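Deliverable D5.2: sample structural annotation.
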Amino acid sequence: MVMFLMTISHNLWNRLIKNRFQHSSQTIHKYFHEVLVAMVNFSKEMITPSFNDSSNGISNHRNVMVVCDFDMIFRFVVVGWEGTTHDSRVLTETIRNNFPMPPSVKATYTHTGGFMAPYRNVRYWLSDFHSGGKAVGKEEIFNQCHARLRNVIEHAFGVVKMRFPILKRMAPYSFTTQTKIVMACFSIHNFLRQILVVDRLFSEYDNEVELESDNANQNQNSTTSSFFAASDQEFMQQFRDQIANELFQVFS
């Protein structure tokens, strides 16, 4: 277990673990994968896992779709797309795997039934409001509230990436092994969060005012899939306007 945790928390290759623990490469490989299987089983208690095994390639980047609550606990995780896969495709395929409907999503996702994206081409990031003045108009007020909700997601991912550098640049394991490692990292994160351990990373990110997304721009073009009905998109647009109007009445 110690060898496994050192590997994923320091992104160490087998030869370094071999030198540190004075075991053969075969022994390290054997026990790493035995622990990994156990961690996948553990993930069934910590989160609701799902794997997409459609790809047979190896990449250092994976797309991950998650549902995260306000305690920075990941309640649902789907792993397996290449890093270049468009967000809308990831969303569409994940829904087919009984993905639970979160209340809000980022702008690159389709704005449709069950998924509420922010207004496009309107100030969004919290830093925009700090440097450019208070939100003006219902669309900016809505986007500011939306960004505050999303900030929890950014904090949670920030903790996971800092704790497990292997997620940033993974060794060339097989595709299946890579997806299992991702699930193991999320499971350990949830376990530490749920037992309320005193942890430097959680403390740092709990006290963070704001974070910017690593790779998303809210003005990116989203792709509307034929999977989503036009009537659902129209309904969500009207529903978003209704919420924005109510927020405007409260905060203006």
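Annotation notes: The first helix runs from residue 2 to 10. The chain has a mean pLDDT of 77.
The annotation will be released with the project's public dataset once the embargo ends.
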